[in-house]
Design a protein that fits this description.
Aspartate Aminotransferase, domain 1; 2 domains; about 35% helix; Aspartate Aminotransferase, domain 2; single chain; alpha/beta; three-stranded antiparallel β-sheet
């Protein structure tokens, strides 16, 4: 059975060569007579895997030397809470720009800890835009300003890094990290769950400017303390070694494919193709996000008649195109086209959408 083109939003499709390598190494990793996931995280084998993963990630996305990299558990959601505990005084203001569902989850996580303020929100227009920077209300004494670089459900993506003045900019890059070059030095901290562009679910990365660790933050257990995690090399407790190893293979694959510059070119072509099919469909398909902020990673779209949703999904799946159902918060369809989705997968979806329109239009 050939592999389907899988448009899942996350956990998402992984590069086939990575899955094959993991399969090959499953029973006997590099001749040690055991799988890497059966060995101690403190042993030389896994310590080597972990160090290489960090070095490769640094190279891949250009992490400056004065930034630390953490590999953590708890997903992106746990980081959404931990950033407040680590970097804001109790009750200190923290500014949030809300451009979709995940911005809302981010602010919800910090409500117990900070004076969480909405600096701007596009909720009133159904999250189809990003509020114009000139309209943001930023606090003088904010611990940080938080944005969601790419909204996975609403398909809205920042195309520039906003200038937020003195407070450090924190960004949730869960669904767009490594999809194009970014200037990390413009951010105080970025975080991402791995399960879209970096590897399997179960591990996240946090990249933060080291000087921020001098902040006192709030009373917290050691395990929730980024300083302690850094000192303990992200191994205060047993880390998710399998996930870390697989993410490391994905980093190597991305570097071998040409790095983030190459993925930026592919992602631009892939998303442009899908949006052109939608926009050129005479209203048969619809995406209502402002063209300047349409996501290159997640393309939500609606059919003109909801009654066609079921046949669309069924016929797509028969054509080897799976996981296209939209998030329950929005309905409709969503094609997630992260780095590991090949261009031929997007071409196959575009061809299918044109054919479906001819059959049902
Ligand atoms: N932020 C964004 C942008 C996401 O897409 C997701 C998951 N889809 C999350 C946060 C939550 O991530 P996790 O499930 O890893 O906590």
């Amino acid at each position: 059975m050939p592999r389907a083109f899988n448009f899942s939003a996350g956990p998402a499709t992984l590069p086939e060569p990575v899955l094959r390598q993991a399969q090959e190494e499953m029973l006997d990793w590099h001749g040690v007579g055991a799988s890497i996931v059966e060995l101690s995280h403190r042993g030389p084998e896994f310590m080597g895997v972990a160090a290489e993963a960090e070095a490769d990630l640094r190279k891949l996305i250009g992490v400056p030397d004065d930034y630390a990299v953490l590999f953590t558990q708890g997903g992106a959601t746990a980081q959404q809470a931990l950033i407040a505990l680590n970097f804001a005084d109790p009750g200190q203001p923290a500014d949030y720009v809300i451009s979709g569902h995940w911005g809302k989850t981010a602010i919800k996580q910090v409500k117990p800890y900070v004076d969480a303020r909405i600096a701007a929100s596009s909720e009133s227009d159904g999250f189809r835009t990003i509020p114009d920077r000139a309209t943001w209300t930023l606090s003088d004494d904010a611990a940080y300003v938080h944005i969601t670089a790419n909204e996975t459900i609403h398909g809205v993506e920042f195309r520039d890094t906003p200038d937020v003045g003195a407070a450090p900019l924190f960004a949730d890059f869960s669904s767009s990290i490594a999809s194009e070059p970014i200037d990390i030095s413009k951010y105080g901290l970025i975080y991402a769950g791995a399960q879209k562009n970096l590897g399997p679910v179960g591990i996240s990365v946090v990249i933060l400017r080291r000087d921020l660790l001098e902040r006192a933050g709030q009373p917290r257990a050691d395990i929730f303390d980024y300083r302690s995690q850094l000192k303990g090399e992200s191994m205060l407790n047993t880390p998710p070694t399998w996930n870390w190893y697989l993410a490391g293979l994905v980093f190597k694959w991305m570097l071998a494919e040409g790095g983030v510059e190459e993925f930026a070119r592919r992602n631009a072509r892939k998303s442009a193709l899908l949006y052109s099919v939608i926009d050129g469909s005479g209203g048969f398909y619809r995406n209502e996000v402002g063209p300047a902020v349409r996501s290159r990673m997640n393309v939500p779209f609606f059919l003109h008649d909801e009654a066609l949703d079921k046949p669309f999904l069924k016929q797509a799946s028969e054509a080897g195109l799976i996981s296209l159902k939209g998030h329950r918060a929005l309905g409709g369809m969503r094609a997630s086209i992260y780095n590991a989705m090949p261009e031929e997968g997007v071409q196959a979806l575009a061809d299918f959408m044109q054919g479906f329109r001819k059959r049902h239009g």
